[in-house]
Description:
alpha/beta; 4 domains
Amino acid sequence: MNAKAPLLALKDIRLMDGQTPLFDGVDIALDRGVRACLVGRNGAGKSTLMRLLAGLIEADSGERYVTQGTRFAFVLQEPEPKGITILDWTISGGAESYLAEAELYAFGIDPQGPTTSMSGGEKRRAALAKAFAEEPDLIFLDEPTNHLDIFAIQTLEDRLKSFRGAALIVSHDRTFLERVTERCYWLYDRRMLRLDANYSGFDEWRDKVEAETAESLRRLEKAIERETYTFYRSITAQRTRNEGRAARLNAMRSDFADRIKAMDKPMDMVLDSGGVSGKLVAELKHVSKGFEGRTLIKDLSTRILRGDRLAIVGPNGAGKSTLVKLLLGQIPADAGEIRLGSKLDVAYLDQGRDALKGDETLWDVLANSGSDSIMVRGEPRHVAAYAKDFLFREKQLRQPVKSLSGGERNRLQLARALAKATNLLVLDEPTNDLDMDTLDLLEDMLADYDGTLILVSHDRDFIDRLATSTLALDGNGRTAETPGGWQDFIRQNPDFFNRGATPKEIAATKAAAVQIKTAPKKLSYKDQKRLEDLEKLMPQWQGEIARLEKVLEDATLYSRDPKAFDATMKKLEKLRHDLDTGETEWLELEDKKAALTGQ
């Protein structure tokens, strides 16, 4: 292969998942020094494709090309360090000891620490250090930001930007991908599509591709209708079957069915806030909490009201989950007073998914009574039908929870939590292992939720789209709360997390704050959705106003039907008010959009 050849390439790869094709002619080439993301819905085969690229599994057909001497490193979704010390494991792949130590320290890991008592975040950071220490030509990162706090994610971003090799990344973290990628690969319709641009351009490109696909399917459907009409008309007229035309028609029908079956199917998530809680959801007055002589929360006072969307942020181990348990009354405070509101229906999705027992089946989790039905927001539904809404196949229902992937366990926990009405939803790292489409759907659902939301997350984009206020913990007892999301917090508190930090860490935090100030902005998901809704509603209101004004032109209406006249007048008055306030709101959102984008 010549000097310009890619490090690694797959050509015309085909692979079956049971009776269903997973890949049908996939082509991909990974070039030297290019950082690319791999995007696709859950179940599209992203992790499987990475394993094919790395040579860990083989395809049913197709070719794999590797430039001689290319070195790979692979960070799995759930790494499991082995050995007596973390350093032992880090050098087990051939890395030099001094490089391994340097990378471990860069990711905040003690090289001499034991591998037996590591948290999920420590395992992830150690796996990343191991991969970079091996000085690969190509690094595969499968959901690398899972279990990392925001600061570790920023460390990874910096490390990738200085990395001279190539990288292929699977991640749900939009901000992370926008900061590190130069190319996008999209597993769509069992094939690979390529965009030579940063991930920030992916959504617009995806929408265009999906629109073109929908139009292609529409044309194919019309062609089948025409061919079917011609074919059966021919039989009627000639009493003979044209076998060539029959084969062509069957092929068209089969192609249409396969393409429909392969299209992405979104989860059918619905969130019901049920009964209205009291205005006060929770109040903390001068609350302190610590463990083993370490103070995590000191003299915290805050109030959560009905409809608030509170994001809780901070480094791993800072006490975020502890604060959630205090808020829910699950653990007592060391000092201070905690008061919970009335009429609370709570749903809590914990980060560790501790509520899911590994030996239970999906059926057991969803219908713990052992019946065939599950009560979904007060109505009985068959377990298999409800599970299908969350993209589970019927054959999976008898599998144990421990056999599920991280994304599947997350979806299962969502399915169980959303089956009942809840007016207080507590989500601890809900975005882990979710694909982009499911994450978009979750954001959409939460944006329309009229209950109270408490969100613990390291996903900066997710926080910015949903939070109305952000409460930060530094891990040393200090807390701070500001209106808005992560970017708003850092703007207003650029030095909050720097107490006790090294000069390098302080400089990195300040650089992140500058980047936030100078980066292009956009409307939040909720504001953008409201703007789009108003653009649809205003013409409808105008049309209905014109219709009612036409009705009132009848001078005899009042004398003939006073009730109809009054009802029409009241409806017209309401519509005019809606249009007036809607136009004002639309102008405000347009002004906000222009201010954010600088246009």
